[in-house]
Design goal:
Layout lengths: L6 H10 L10 E4 L7 E4 L1 H9 L8 E4 L4 E4 L4 H7 L14 H9 L9 H8 L7 H33 L3 H9 L10 H17 L6 H22 L2 H17 L5 H23 L19
Antiparallel strand pairs: 1-2, 1-3, 3-4
Length: about 300
């Protein structure tokens, strides 16, 4: 019986013997109708998938040079490796009929990696790679929670700073001298927090670097106010709020994000409550700079 083998398959089998001496490129692939990707694959593995009918020239691969998903058919170099158009080399191998039939009926005995096993590993369904999928899912959950949670923290911070200045703000509004509120530095910080909270509720994550600096201000100011008033509750609440904001901007796992959210929202909620009930009455009166004349 005659077996025909493509020239490309011969080359792939020969190259696999010297693979340790080469630096192989890794490719991630996905279909145009799905967001989930598979990989990484080497070009030789993509060739195996193509021959098994698992991928086509329309299958997307991530092009690192362009930083975008591109059909394999548009990458001439990769296309030539995965979908070769080389003239086939015919090899005639005369085998006894019994041996030939056995090879055809039992392709698993020919050796090599099964396509289904390769896909399972690429999709993190294997035992060795399942932890990678769990880590990615944890990161996605943390990212989804961070923006809205930070928005709540910063909004509570704005309340804690603006509530003690409510009389000053009302007076400026009634006298239509809005510029005078800028004589109170913590009113400016409170308005900044209000703007940051609005941006966070709109999922503008580019403000995260500013929030890290803002977290340090909460921590430092809270320590000063707590020391000045002799109140350990303010110290603890400010520390929790500051650390909560900071870690919520850098958390890589869902469990870490939950801890950051609990600290940030809890700490700022306490500060906002103390401000509303007048706990800071008289303290902010000394925080005044006549940058803009009131008359």
């Amino acid at each position: 019986m005659t077996i025909y083998m493509s020239f490309q398959n011969c080359r792939a089998k020969l190259s696999s013997k010297v693979a340790p001496l080469q630096i192989m490129a890794d490719y991630y692939i996905r279909t145009p109708d799905r967001e989930e990707s598979r990989g990484p694959f080497e070009a030789s593995q993509l060739l195996t998938l193509a021959e098994a009918g698992q991928i086509t020239e329309n299958t997307l691969h991530y092009d690192e040079s362009k930083e975008e998903w591109t059909p394999i058919g548009l990458n001439q170099q990769l296309k030539a490796e995965v979908f070769p158009e080389n003239e086939k080399l015919s090899l005639k191998i005369n085998l006894p009929e019994e041996t030939s039939t056995k090879v055809e009926n039992n392709p698993a005995e020919q050796g090599g990696i099964k396509v289904t096993d390769m896909l399972a590993a690429a999709e993190c369904d294997s035992e060795e790679t399942s932890h990678l999928k769990k880590k990615e899912e944890s990161f996605q959950k943390a990212a989804a929670l961070s923006s809205s949670s930070l928005g709540v923290m910063i909004m509570l911070s704005a309340v804690a700073l603006l509530a003690p200045h409510s009389s000053v703000i009302n007076e400026a509004i009634s006298a239509e001298k809005f510029s005078t509120i800028f004589n109170y530095p913590f009113v400016i910080v409170g308005l900044f927090d209000f703007i940051m909270a609005a941006l966070l509720f709109l999922a503008v994550t580019e403000v995260y670097p500013l929030l890290r600096g803002r977290a340090m201000l909460t921590l430092g100011f809270g320590i000063y106010v707590g020391w000045a008033l002799g109140d350990p509750i303010i110290l603890i609440a400010s520390a929790a709020g500051g650390f909560g904001i900071f870690y919520a901007t850098i958390a890589q796992s869902f469990s870490t994000m939950l801890v950051a959210v609990a600290l940030g929202i809890g700490g700022h909620a306490i500060l906002a409550y103390l401000a509303i009930i007048g706990h800071f009455a008289g303290f902010f009166d000394s925080m005044y700079f006549e940058l803009i004349p009131t008359k």
